Amino acid sequence: MSFKTVQTKPIEGQKPGTSGLRKKTAVFRQPGYLENFVQCVFDGTGGAQGKTYVVGGDGRFFNAEAIGIIIRMAAANGVARLIVGQDGILSTPAVSNLIRKFKTDGGIILSASHNPGGETGDFGVKFNAANGGPAPEKLTDAIYAKTLDIIEYRIADETPTGINQIGRFTMGDTRIDVIDPVEDYETLMQELFDFDAISALFSGGFRMCFDAMHAVTGPYAKRILEDTLGAPAGSVINAVPSPDFGGGHPDPNPVWASELVAIMGASDAPDFGAASDGDGDRNMIMGKGAFVSPSDSLALLTAYAHLAPAYSGKLAGVARSMPTSQAVDLVAERLAIPCFETPTGWKFFGNLLDAGKATLCGEESAGTGSNHIREKDGLWAVLLWLNILARDGRDIVQLRQDHWRSFGRNYYSRHDYEEIPADAANALMTAFRDKLPALTGTSANGMQVSKADEFAYLDPVDQSLTEQQGVRVQFTDGSRLVLRLSGTGTQGATLRVYLERFVARGGDHNLDVQEALAPIIQAAETLAQITKFTGRSSADVIT
Ligand code: G6P
Ligand code: ZN
């Protein structure tokens, strides 16, 4: 085994964002691009000598090649042990679990989440820390600092050939354990949920459709849902991870998961539908002909989590990102548990979970999870739903209807204005921000404003302050309007308008969502002057 040190130069733009370094695949394939970044991940986290890491990805184009490079670099940097998923496959939640289970120093995940893959698509590298969660800012800052003055990287000459077979091989002093990507994750799910009840549900004729969207959850869902729990063969569709996700966009929402939406809208629709994204951390939930919004899903899961063994005791608390609807707040109030409101981004839940302050967390952007790992977890959400349905006995649509009858309904929708010039987006936000102090007590479109402010988060665990996390207008009837700029876009700015209208107990809970929200949509236009600033008369994507 021979190692070499390769001279290199800093490459511009290697600043990790919310979810690691995410670029066009072609950018990652440039000579030295991945190598530079991986060396900086090692160097920026205190060096790789003697360390243990988990490595895997969502199977997108360049996944296997990238893993080969990472193994060669790990060996040349003196890593003690790597745990690699067979064929280079590991979902993001599975990596989080493996880091925690085997107490490794961290993990490297190859994925650009729900972004399209393939030669012309996107690729990404994320580093997760020893708690299993996304690297905190101080680590990503340290990695970035290294990318600015890197002069060399270390790599083995030999390309490893063993990752397609479960087993063990060595490169120099580095031991590489190639593991079954599903096994440890399935064991964890078995510890959390009542698998017997779910099996009995399926043997009683319950039918479901899980759309893996040609992405990483295919092998996980097939094994767990079909092989172990006995869902009929074919319950999992698009189950083989493909390098370009079958040419699709692996984002589980009603727009991109249209195949599932069609299946769930048919007259012979199964009882339950679900989908997950490229790397397996997002989820979408459906009943017959009904989309369960992520915000409602979080509220319902909180209300019924006690039916699953792992959550049968009192929940420590729940947490939601600020723009997520307030439906879960009402449940928390009734359960007499704290409800935390955090900025958008899963990393903000980390401290609450580590400190034992929250048990369940969720975001309107299709992320739900718990203290079992430190990432959101798509298949976990599906299994918790199945556990609840198996133990409760009601149909999911009925369960939701009964929930609204008891708590009231928070009608909810997000309107996205994509690729607007950054200047226009900033001008809109500034103008809106300036108006906030004068809004309280006024009325907009017949609704009374009870509070208007810009969200800032004081972390109750480490007291860190995160400011400018979205502007919000709260109305006296419990309705709400939130505006913020996306932190994950790649082209121009994306304006997200989050609309929420509360209809209390006894009101009409079966209105069309956009119709129910019409007064809030109009108030958004009046207050934020979206058309004036963006030149757009309607949103590009409505979910
Ligand atoms: C990623 C993060 C989520 C976040 C989402 C939306 O998926 O992991 O935590 O909610 O991006 O971010 P955005 O800034 O685009 O609204
Ligand atoms: Zn994802």
From TrEMBL:
Its cofactor is Mg(2+). The keyword Phosphoprotein applies. GO terms for biological process: carbohydrate metabolic process. It catalyses: alpha-D-glucose 1-phosphate = alpha-D-glucose 6-phosphate. GO terms for molecular function: magnesium ion binding; phosphoglucomutase activity. PROSITE patterns: PGM_PMM. Keywords: Isomerase, Magnesium, Metal-binding, Phosphoprotein. GO terms for cellular component: cytosol. SUPFAM superfamilies: Phosphoglucomutase, C-terminal domain (SSF55957), Phosphoglucomutase, first 3 domains (SSF53738). InterPro entries: A-D-PHexomutase_a/b/a-I, A-D-PHexomutase_a/b/a-I/II/III, A-D-PHexomutase_a/b/a-II, A-D-PHexomutase_a/b/a-III, A-D-PHexomutase_C_sf, A-D-PHexomutase_CS, Alpha-D-phosphohexomutase_SF, PGM. It holds the Pfam family PGM_PMM_II. Residues 14-151, 189-286, 296-406 form the Alpha-D-phosphohexomutase alpha/beta/alpha domain. Its EC number is 5.4.2.2. Residues 1-22 are annotated as: Disordered. Belongs to the phosphohexose mutase family. This is phosphoglucomutase (alpha-D-glucose-1,6-bisphosphate-dependent). It comes from Litoreibacter roseus. The gene is pgm.
